[in-house]
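thread from #wetlab-drylab

HS: before we spend reagent money on co-crystallization trials with nicotinamide-adenine-dinucleotide, can we at least see a predicted complex? here's what I'd submit
DV: go for it
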Amino acid sequence: MNPIRLDVDTPSRRYAITLGYGVLDQLAVLLDAARVPAQRFIVSSPPIWRLHGTRLAGAGMSEPILIPDGERFKQLQTVSRVYEALIRANADRASTVVTFGGGVIGDMAGFAAATYLRGVALVHIPTTLLAQVDSAIGGKVGVNHALGKNLIGAFYQPHAVIVDPSVLDTLPRREFRAGLYEVVKYGMTSSPGLLERLSRERTSIFARSPEVLSAIIGESCRIKAEVVARDERESGPRRILNFGHTAGHALEAVTKYRRFRHGEAIAYGMLVAAEVSVARGALLDRDRHTLATLIASLGPLPPITDVTSTGILESMRHDKKVVAGRLHFVLPTAIGATIIVDDVTEQEFKKALKNVGFRS
Ligand SMILES: NC(=O)c1ccc[n+]([C@@H]2O[C@H](COP(=O)([O-])OP(=O)(O)OC[C@H]3O[C@@H](n4cnc5c(N)ncnc54)[C@H](O)[C@@H]3O)[C@@H](O)[C@H]2O)c1
Ligand SMILES: [Zn+2]
């Protein structure tokens, strides 16, 4: 299979996503083609480096900067370790930070690249499904604060994104499924063909078949690239990618980010949005059912029977998607189509949460 190349054309930068099995073997060539400075610093985590570090050996980079990658380490203190390593290595403006890891590494090392000396070149090499289809593209970088998730950050587009799905072979099944729910999101908001493919080729997807995985990752990257190109800073069309993220983020927050992988919470969030939409007559129940069946077929989600809808509603009030006191909410109107509304009432949310299985 030949690698595919997708361009992300944003006002602040134009860059390529290169996707293909084995593209890591051409890393040096790809980095040169992206014209990033030759003093290159890899940032990764110890487990990822142990599993896949040798794949990067030929690219002529120095010792990796290794930082821990659990969500609880996604904070300024860890980013500070990256600054320290860069300073000690005399990294100057003509340096490149290459991130090699999941969304946590990409967000932290990306933030370091955006801020070190007011910005050095950045290349993402995502190693989780979630990072390959979502977090490595679009320029959101940042860290959590003790008082809330992703509160500190920047928009900082990378100079290149290199996606080699062969690294996913070692990804634990739960992490893999968590990434698949974001693919469901792309299907539901933008691509009926992708959604259909997820249900038709489920067995090959879980067998991590190179052909099928490349196809679904490629379609997801294409959608994300296209949406980001239209709206780099999420003032308009990019908001559709928040489908499922309102109730989803609230669910992550009320369970203290311990019980759910991000994608799992989003799966619930998508079900809530679909319920609201059906109750309004904006979505056919048949389409909601298709979504629910697909989500169920991807495996069990952690239970929510002890999570109250009151708690979710309370948490939703603090959502970043609240603009001037109104919550922007993405409603699916068909498979592959959405609208954004700002008038969903608490009563509507309550009913939808109950239908999905939350405690009243
Ligand atoms: N920037 C964005 O636009 C954006 C979008 C979505 C999510 N995010 C962020 O991404 C983060 C979640 O990212 P994630 O789901 O990739 O989680 P993660 O980075 O925590 O990785 C999950 C786990 O998988 C391990 N891992 C990574 N690659 C592996 C591999 N190839 N084989 C085996 N194990 C591997 C990691 O060590 C880690 O334990 C969250 O902090 C979220 O806020 C950012
Ligand atoms: Zn998400």
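DV: Residues 93 and 117 are 6 Å apart (CA to CA).
HS: ok that's useful, forwarding to the group
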